[in-house]
Specification:
The complex is a heterodimer of chains A (about 375) and B (about 400). With about 375 residues, chain A is α+β, with helices and mostly antiparallel strands. Helices cover about 25% and strands about 40% of the residues of chain A. In chain A, helix 2 runs parallel beside helix 4 and helix 3 packs across helix 4. The chains are: A alpha+beta (about 375), B mainly alpha (about 400).
């Protein structure tokens, strides 16, 4: 079963570096999402694995076999890499019926007619499109087209499935449905999935591991909850999660190995951690997830409600702390605080993250306003 | 046109086939060709139809070798011998081109249609030609020179020689350009081109006509385009759309035959218009309106309704919305809506040849007249002048407004 290894992959388009020295080990049967803002190199990475794009330097291995190596001048053709590719715009051939679209790859492999027929019917059933074998792509809805594209990709039984934002052209409801189906497919086929998306929610819900890229650099490669709870730097912290993490800059003053005093204007707080704090504190950033900002009756710090946005299941509060800090807070249930009313909040223990002057993760901990 | 189709074709479609292990041959025959077939066929039909109705080329090249085509017959019969027969021919021509376009419409409108969602098709794959690079570039440059620059040089040269076919230095003369009295040479005392009152009159007529047609066709076309897009989905919008496009389907000469029959005699309040400037301007405006309305439709389609609504809400009147919002935003396609009729009009022969009288000759009909007389030096010189004027105007407009004709045609 296939494991995909990328070693020091760099891709340049002229002077523009799309992927910068990326090393990635994708385990067999993983569901990896390549996540990042547009232009971060995620699609390029995917196309390089498929062989549609040639890296400038580096090495790619699939199933232990070198499929690309700039040093050894190896470049295995896409069809011989045993990968399936799902395009963002489906790339269905408009002049072929659904049946012919799915059968095409099998015909290339010189399958017998009966076998092809059996396989196509099986896929039509698997993807719940049995009614449409004779339709042309233009006569199908977006969701149906997507299913045909998946069926076509799965037909030849690829053990690696590469997907380039396959759900971004669907409406929100259909997208939810297809997400669940992709997860089911991953389970049923046992293949390795690599999935490109810019939607962090999609990445969180689908992946076994998230690979977060920015401007060609690997930012973090971890399971979704690790990425969420222990972001490696402020970019990751800011990119993952909605509403975004509260990030406030402070100047720090080390007291001992496990605690320090933080200042921001006339705000002062004490940060304590189980971990050893960095020697040189200087400028630091404190990150708190909105759901870890808790409204309390007493003992908290006073904040002013800027806006409150109840949505039924939860309420998002935008709060003003001091004169220049905005905090967002998510609480379960719907409470409607009037604007400009005063409430008190605390930050949940151990869930406060400290980032150093370069924005890299330093330590988790708790804070107390003093 | 086919280059454009190939450029717009989604590279993913081929990549998908490539990943499924398609051989090159199979890819070409099963994916690439079928994919672009409708577009290629439709290009083929359009070229066929415009060749069917062309008059200038066959009459310049075909006449000396007696290669008669329908348009030439039509001109001959209409110009004298048997107008009735001419009208019958005009009718046949119209039927043929409408038939071709109807067929084209059917081919495009099948269910294998191409309205699939487009995405990242912008990834243009460059093919590395390696060692073939220099020779291929040379051949292409050579071809471009052969088809574009070489004819101009030929025109210039041919207009300078006394006896055609003799390229010796002693045979060169400027008298066809600036000679006062060329009686001795070949032509019957016709003054050189630049001193020839007939030429200046024709030039003035041409410019007057082209400007008039451009202004009226451009303005009307823009308004029509605006109306069609804003009224999208209504019946009247569809009717106006097809009506405005209809003259495009008409072979130019058959179209002018219709005008000839309609306006050659006085009918009710309309006096006989034959031989007037007005009828030329009228037919030019109608014939070129499709260009302008297409470019109007294209530009209005790109412009969100909301831009105008935003103006409407703060109380800006219609006229001001046009001149301050819509037109400035779509400036370049707006200008090309004028430029296209102008340039087409400048070089049009078949549309005017039936309707022009010696008094209101335009450059192209003068050219035709010289050619008929066999004064090749004059016709070559005149040809050169027309090409230069057209290129100059396009350059001028391009420089001042950033618009160019190739921008407006798309669609």
């Amino acid at each position: 079963m296939p494991r995909i290894e990328l070693r020091n992959i760099t891709k340049k388009f002229g002077d523009f570096v799309a992927v910068d020295n990326l090393t990635l080990d994708i385990k067999d049967g993983d569901f990896i999402t390549l996540l990042g803002p547009s232009g971060c190199g995620k699609t390029t990475t995917l196309r390089q694995i498929a062989g549609l794009e040639m890296p400038t330097s580096g090495e790619i291995l699939i199933d232990g076999k070198v499929v690309f190596s700039s040093d050894k001048s190896i470049d295995v053709a896409p069809k011989d890499r045993g990968v399936g590719f799902l395009f963002q715009n489906y790339a269905l051939w408009p002049h072929m019926t659904v049946y012919r679209n799915i059968a095409f790859g099998l015909e290339n492999l010189k399958w017998k007619k009966d076998d092809i027929d059996r396989r196509v019917k099986e896929l039509l059933k698997l993807l719940k499109i049995e009614e449409f074998p004779d339709r042309y792509p233009a006569e199908l809805s977006g969701g149906q087209q997507q299913r045909v594209a998946i069926a076509r990709t799965l037909a030849t039984n690829p053990r690696v499935l590469l997907m380039d934002e396959p759900l971004s052209n669907l409406d929100a409801k259909l997208r939810m449905e297809m997400r669940a189906e992709l997860k089911r497919l991953h389970h049923e086929t046992g293949a390795t999935f690599v999935y490109v998306t810019h939607d962090q929610l999609e990445a969180m819900t689908l992946a076994t591991k998230i690979c977060l890229l920015d401007r060609g650099y690997l930012q973090q490669y971890d399971p979704p909850l690790t990425v969420y709870n222990r972001p490696r730097n402020t970019f990751v912290a800011d990119f993952v999660g909605n509403p975004t993490m509260n990030l406030i800059s402070f100047s720090g003053e080390r007291k001992d190995d496990h605690s320090c005093i933080l200042h921001h204007k006339d705000m002062r707080l004490q940060f304590t951690s189980q971990d050893v704090l960095p020697e040189d504190l200087g400028k630091v950033t404190i990150g708190v997830r909105p759901e870890n900002v808790l409204v309390t009756e007493n003992g908290g710090i006073k904040v002013k409600v800027d806006t409150s946005l109840p949505s039924g299941m939860e309420t998002i509060l935008n709060l003003r702390l001091g004169d220049d800090v905005m905090l967002s807070c998510v609480m379960i249930g719907s409470v409607d605080y009037p604007s400009d009313s005063e409430i008190e909040v605390v930050f949940k223990d151990v869930q406060v993250l400290m980032f150093d002057g370069e924005g890299n993760f330093a330590a988790p901990g708790s804070v107390k306003f003093i | 046109m086919i280059g454009g189709i190939l450029r717009n074709a989604d590279a993913n479609l081929e990549e998908a086939a490539q990943l499924l292990g398609t051989t090159r041959r199979r890819m070409l025959f099963k994916i690439t060709i079928p994919m672009i077939m409708p577009a290629v066929l439709s290009t083929f039909l359009l070229v066929f139809s415009s060749a069917m109705s062309s008059f200038a080329v066959p009459s310049f090249l075909g006449l000396p070798v007696r290669y008669q085509v329908l348009t030439m017959q039509l001109y001959r019969t209409m110009d004298g011998v048997a107008p009735g027969q001419g009208f019958a021919m005009a009718l046949i021509m119209i039927l043929i081109s409408v038939g071709i376009l109807a067929f084209n419409q059917r081919v495009i409108g099948t269910r294998k249609n191409y309205t699939t969602v487009t995405g990242k098709s912008s990834q243009i794959a460059l093919v590395n030609l390696k060692r073939g690079r220099t020779p291929i570039s040379c051949i292409l440059v050579f071809l471009i020179i052969m088809v574009s620059l070489f004819p101009l040089v030929t025109f210039a040269l041919e207009s300078l020689i006394k006896v055609p076919g003799d390229y010796s230095l002693s045979n060169l003369t400027l008298s066809f350009w600036i000679g006062r009295d060329n009686g001795a040479v070949i032509t019957s005392g016709e003054p050189g081109l630049l001193l020839n009152p007939a030429l200046w009159k024709a030039l003035w007529n041409s410019i007057k006509l082209s400007v008039t047609c451009a202004l009226s066709a451009g303005t009307l076309g823009f308004l029509v385009g605006y109306g069609i897009v804003r009224g999208k989905g209504t019946r009247i919008s569809k009717i106006v759309d097809s009506l405005a496009f209809f003259p495009y389907l008409m072979p130019a000469m058959a179209f002018s035959a219709i005008y000839l029959s309609m306006f050659s005699v006085r009918r009710f309040l309309i006096p006989s218009l034959y031989g007037t400037f007005f009828i030329l301007a009228l037919i030019g405006t109608v014939k070129y309106m499709p260009f302008a309305s297409r470019s109007g439709i294209n530009s209005m389609m790109q412009l969100s309704n909301q831009i105008e609504e935003a103006g409407e809400i703060i109380g800006i009147g219609w006229f001001k919305r046009m001149t301050r919002l819509v037109i400035p935003i779509q400036k370049s396609s707006f200008v090309s809506g004028y430029l296209l009729p102008f340039i087409s009009c400048m070089r049009e022969l078949s549309l005017f040849v039936l309707l022009c009288t010696p008094q209101n000759r335009v450059l192209t009909t003068l050219l035709y007249y010289y050619n008929e007389k066999g004064w090749s030096q004059y016709s070559n010189g005149l040809n050169l002048l027309i090409v230069i004027i057209v290129i100059f105007v396009n350059w001028l407009v391009n420089k001042t407004t950033g618009a160019s004709i190739d921008k407006g045609i798309g669609g």
